[in-house]
Amino acid sequence: MATRGFTGRPRTDDGRVPPGQYVVDDFPVLTAGPTVGVTEQEWELTVGDGNTSKSYDWKSLHALPIESITVDIHCVTHWTKLDTEWEGVRVSTLFEDADVGDYDFALVSSYGDYTTNVPVSDLVDHDALIATRYDGEPIDAEHGGPVRLVVPHLYFWKSAKWVRHIRLADEDEPGFWEAAGYHSYGDPWREQRYYAD
Amino acid sequence: MATVAKLVEETSSARTIVFDVPQWKRHCAGQHLDLRLTAPDGYQATRSYSLSSGPDEAPQITVERVDDGEVSSFLVDIVEDGDTLEIRGAVGGYFVWTPRLASTRPAPLLLIGGGSGIAPLRAMWRSATTNVPTTILYSAQTHERVIYRDELAAHESATVKIHLTRQEHDGYETGRIDSRALNAAVGTGTPPHTYVCGPTAFVEAVTQALMPLHPDASMIRTERFG
Q1: What is the CATH number of domain A43-190?
Q2: Which of A57, B163, B195, B212 lies 20 to 30 angstroms, CA to CA, from B25?
Q3: What is the pLDDT of residues A183-197, one digit of tens each?
Q4: Does domain B2-91 have CATH number 2.40.30.10?
Q5: What are the residues of chain B with a beta carbon less than 8 Å away from any beta carbon of chain A?
Q6: Phi, psi of A187, rounded to the nearest 5 degrees
């Protein structure tokens, strides 16, 4: 049923905007707590599966092949940003280099203790990056710099800022927002916002 | 569905919409509603708005009109008494303050709001009992833009400091909420549960200034918009 008096802005939907989302031109910031300040020198990422683990710093990460992707990103707070350009290392490349085993789930954690869970297949079979640049520049701290995860086909809370640790396991373990009532998987096209969606 | 039961014009650009919702369940202070508006051609727009009502009040939101805001200008300018709106919620489990948190970890409450970011903080001060020492720091551009002006002026148990960034006015602080104001608000006793809500730039500036002053960063929760 239509809402009395509501017409909305001119329609621009060309099939790229998931249901319940609207397009923004700026880049809103959404973080549960304060922005974490971690420098390129301090930053470190450890990838492990309980048996094998490998750590990367800024330099060793950049020794891996760098790729660039241009993707649309969708935040659960209803904004969508089209054509965002990220540069970094494919998660599949990273896992191969770290020589981790074959597991179904990943729990990603950040500086500042944020966590989020993502199925491994969503990290390796899709355009998922360990991103070090946004729009041709270093990533601002408030947007997750120096290094963040980017998993563009899921709601953007899955794209952990200030990524520090990726732990692979057989079991799925809910992360921060997932434990706070948000959806475990978070597909924007199916509007999987909250746990019961 | 929610029926608009009452409209309160808070300022020339902000209004409170009080809803009548059948079988409304008590919410937690800090939770939000998702509102979905549908145009005659089926186009839909959805936005989240913090509840500004305390848990014992009828659900309400407080909306400030933003430039080019297709939903906010509809809510501030078009909505009338008796309209029905599609809502979902209350939702959200992180930027919340509950009496339970206050009893499991007793600490003062520090609420820091910028602009219409004061809305969820109102829900918190409405749910805090008088034995929780509460400080409210609020930044607005001018005296005319201060939301809940009378309620804040009449608040008996909280320490209230309102900063005006673009005006000098009797009874108000002049200039942004700076380290000095934050230092005084954090105090030297038990570190406060701290909630910061407002536009992104406001929340970034406040939390960056707050971090070195606050003994426990895990007690700082933030909500940004715009």
Answers
A1: 3.90.420.10
A2: B195
A3: 999 999 999 999 888
A4: yes
A5: 36-41, 43-48, 70, 74, 78-80, 83-86, 91-95, 200, 203-204, 207-208, 210-211, 217-218, 220-222, 224-226
A6: -85, 115
